Task: inverse folding
């Protein structure tokens, strides 16, 4: 079994070397361990340090962001013949000695995806606003995905080869919520393990410099992912809500018309009722069309999966 540890990195010259040094050299059940660093067009010595430490380095020609760097790392892991990939951060907040905890459920055949959770609320070094933001994003991910995830923002996680071939990363900002939702929707087996999370020493987070900006962009990612994989549920829900609102609004108009034979003085309500019913019906029709398109997407992803599998077998 080959393990690839993928490290997306952007201007992490002060901590990247320590992260690589801390990665275990031997893990029971793993015959080979290889480190891949995805340098997201750093302007410091990140690239040179990664090469000096013996990592396989792939460099983005321009700053692409975390999600695309994660995707590139996963593609590189498959290219190198990885049976398991562990993704970790370059800022030395995760303890790399805990990598065996992530790989064990996959090696045992119990899981395709292993998520770590940091017990965020108990972290004394995490600011309150980040605790609130993390907890809220985790709650939303839990509700939307239907999986009882404990820490949706933790980037310290492991993937089997099957998971790497199945996952399709579409976000251009963060992958953490998207991969959880996609794993659930595609029926991949998931486990969770607790992990250590150290205080950051290398300045502010490159991804979450502003918690409210992160919450907004992560929220968009969650909404887009859910709509992408469950379009009928989204459009049907919105359409039915508008239809119900239209019926409630039109009830008094209809009652008044039956009693008096006149619509006035409820003309505005009658117009609103018509708009709500028409728009609600149109949204439901859009949902049916989107569901048909979704069937085509599933076929395309299955073809992509089989092509990846065939390429790896060769």
Result:
């Amino acid at each position: 079994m080959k393990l690839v540890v993928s490290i997306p990195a952007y201007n992490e010259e002060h901590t990247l070397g320590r992260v690589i040094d801390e990665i275990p050299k031997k893990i029971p059940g793993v015959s080979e361990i290889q480190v891949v660093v995805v340098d997201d067009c750093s302007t410091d010595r990140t690239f040179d340090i990664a090469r000096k430490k013996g990592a396989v380095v792939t460099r983005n020609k321009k700053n692409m962001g975390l999600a695309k760097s994660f995707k590139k790392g996963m593609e590189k892991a498959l290219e190198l013949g990885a049976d398991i990939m562990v993704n970790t951060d370059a800022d030395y907040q995760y303890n790399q000695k805990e990598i065996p905890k992530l790989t064990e459920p996959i090696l045992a055949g119990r899981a395709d995806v292993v998520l770590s959770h940091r017990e965020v609320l108990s972290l004394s070094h995490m600011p309150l606003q980040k605790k609130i933001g993390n907890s809220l994003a985790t709650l939303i991910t839990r509700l939307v995905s239907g999986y009882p995830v404990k820490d949706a923002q933790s980037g310290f996680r492991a993937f089997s080869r099957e998971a790497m071939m199945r996952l399709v990363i579409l976000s251009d900002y963060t992958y953490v919520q998207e991969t959880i939702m996609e794993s659930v929707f595609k029926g991949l087996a998931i486990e969770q393990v607790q992990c250590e999370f150290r205080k950051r020493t290398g300045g502010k987070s490159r991804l979450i410099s502003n918690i409210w900006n992160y919450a907004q962009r992560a929220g968009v990612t969650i909404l887009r992912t859910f709509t992408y994989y469950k379009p009928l549920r989204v459009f049907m829900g919105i359409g039915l809500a508008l239809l119900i609102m239209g019926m409630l609004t039109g009830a008094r108009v209809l009652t008044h018309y039956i009693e008096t034979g006149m619509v006035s003085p409820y003309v505005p309500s009658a117009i609103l009722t018509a708009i709500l019913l028409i728009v609600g019906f149109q949204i439901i029709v859009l949902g049916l069309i989107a569901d048909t398109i979704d069937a085509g997407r599933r076929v395309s992803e299955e073809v992509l999966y089989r092509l990846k599998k065939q390429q790896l077998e060769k």
Notes: The CA atoms of residues 11 and 285 lie 48 Å apart.
